Amino acid sequence: MGYRVGVDIGGSFTDFALFDENTQSLKTLKVFSRPDEPGAEVLEGVRLVGERYGIKPGDISYFTHGTTVGINTVIQRKGLKLALFTTEHFRDVLEVARLKIPNMYNLLSKRPEPLIPRDRVFGVVGRMKADGSEETALDEASIARAVAGAQAAGAEGIVVSLLHSYRNAGHERAVKAIVERLAPEIPVFLSSETWPIIREYERTITAAIGAYVQPRVAHYLGSLQAALKNAGVTVDPRLTKSNGGVMTAEQGKSECVQMILSGTASGVIGAAYVAEVCGIKHCMSLDIGGTSADVAIIIDGQPQYGVGEQIGEFQIHIPSVSVSSIGEGGGSIAWVDAQGVLKVGPESAGSRPGPACYGRGGTRATITDAFAALGLVGLSEIGYSAVTIDRDKARAVVGALAEKLGRSIEETAEAIIRIAVSGMYSDVSALVSRFGIDPRDFSCLAFGGAGPMMGCFLARELNMRETVVPPTPGVLSALGGLIADIKSDFIKTLYADLAPATGAIIRDEFETLKGKALAWLHVDQGYAGEHRLTYSAEMRYRGQSFEIDTPLDSTAVAAGDTKALAAAFHAEHERVYGHADPTAAVQVISLRLVISGKTTKPEFRRVEAVSEPATPLSHAEAWLDGAYRSIAVFNRNDLKPGQRFAGPAVITQDDCTTIVPPGLTVRVDEYANLRIVSEIAP
């Protein structure tokens, strides 16, 4: 028994959640992130954990880590210089893509430059048919020419993505063997090994992204493993995955594509756990850090999943938690454009220099500076005493913008906040439309360093029923990584009509996937506990272009009961689209099996309500909603379940600041969450 540690590295701060397996208690910590030296913040945190809590590196029994190294590599375009080998005459697969522009409402919108430019794409003679049989044999001379071309272009890696390799990977494996013989110094990545799905572009871009980030991710993970070992941490670190699970760091070195959304998924898992424990049926998680705001939908305590999530300018087609990232965070910079219009983001001050009010050299106004200039932030130290807010510096940088706009400092600061909330409102509205939900039925669960600071303002604009702030909102993403289950997805493309004869094939293919899944969990991950298997299939009516991931009953799968499988698809089609056709022919495109093993979860204890009223720590004058007001200031540690008070108010704590505008009331529930609702709410 020891301490289970979860770490989440953000743009400004790195968060630590430490769960004592003996006492079932939770401790937290924040340190500044080090984008100049990734991994240094983890070691600094391990050192401070020892100083603050007396926890020795050898006491750490479990270590999970969420990282943005992969996604940042794509965004910054600092990945491996790749060549792509395709089937001859299909060299334009990345350029043609899906013939969509990024913004369908902007006629000047352009598709991004491919990660692998056309001059490093080479055709290979040889072709598989859609049924997996060979139409044209591989021509080794064409492969040799492609290798020579890749070498001449200075390629540092080669991605091989051939037609129909999801059905038969023989040609791709043969190409890899030839490349390794001719150019053993160049690593080779196969689309059939990365994620063997139907559709050429989706499989190719997913393989390309995985290969693009692999060296930087592998180097980072190797350095982290060595550093932790040198620091005295004996357990091998695990990584949070895009699908909300965790895997070993060693696996992450070779399967980088599985953890590309590592950091964003952790927060959603943490929020989902809070929602499930507290009985919040419909919830929108709002994770605002220093650089961005990540929004996800949680229903019945379960996050929503999907494929095709955006990684920088590209979609990646692996199962992942559905998260929308918005370019507004606490460190987002406010600026005035050439036309004299105030804008906010997407550029961020990050952790260095950070907002001007942090006193670390920042000279440009950020969202955090706007709140500080109004007197709403800085009423206590934040970041576990790592930061003391300098309001004068905040007013100076906001004042520089105010002069350009001909407005007061207060008006300009409030405008910065409103513009940021407006940008969030626009993107959240798109997410709401995507899932077909009514935000008035949802709670906004705000967390991250800046989530509680801005959560009430966004929830008010969306007419959401309440804003919920958990007890340790600033480190909830770290907690999410700590409690995430060991989990992985396994897929097999089938592409067959759902006829009686297909039942046995489906059963046998699932048995094969089950064998792979059990080996991954118990052998590769070293997990010895009970596991859970979840069956689904991507299905569609014959003639449809796209399919629906349909949950399947394991009993029906084992029995090869195609009638039951068809009924499951009709029901899912009815749920998604509002109609179904039980008489129409159904196709099974692919089979998917998810295996998961439970991890230890901290117990959130219910606490009896108290009768005494909440007492403010102090009062302060601050500008809020267009005027200076007397603001009640509360310390989060002093608040007890059952207490209520009305806004305007500010609640301070080590990891964040919660701001409650006028017209809202705060109730502390039995789990010590802040439940913030309109005064006229029932």
Would you kindly provide a written description of the structure presented here, covering whatever features stand out?
The protein starts with a strand and ends with a strand. The model has no long low-confidence stretch (mean pLDDT 89). With 682 residues, it is α+β, with helices and mostly antiparallel strands. α4 (140-152) crosses α5 (170-182). Helices cover 33% and strands 27% of the residues. β1 (3-9) and β2 form a beta hairpin. The strands form nine sheets. Strands 13, 14, 15, 20, 23, 24, 31, 34 and 35 form a nine-stranded mixed beta sheet that branches. The chain has six domains: 3-69 and 236-261, Nucleotidyltransferase, domain 5; 75-215, Rossmann fold (3-Layer(aba) Sandwich); 273-329 and 431-478, 2-Layer Sandwich (Nucleotidyltransferase, domain 5), CATH 3.30.420; 334-419, no CATH class; 486-597, 2-Layer Sandwich (Dna Ligase, domain 1), CATH 3.30.1490; 618-678, no CATH class. InterPro entries: ACX-like_C (IPR049517), ATPase_NBD (IPR043129), Hydant_A_N (IPR008040), Hydantoinase_A (IPR002821), Oxoprolinase-like (IPR045079). GO terms for molecular function: 5-oxoprolinase (ATP-hydrolyzing) activity.
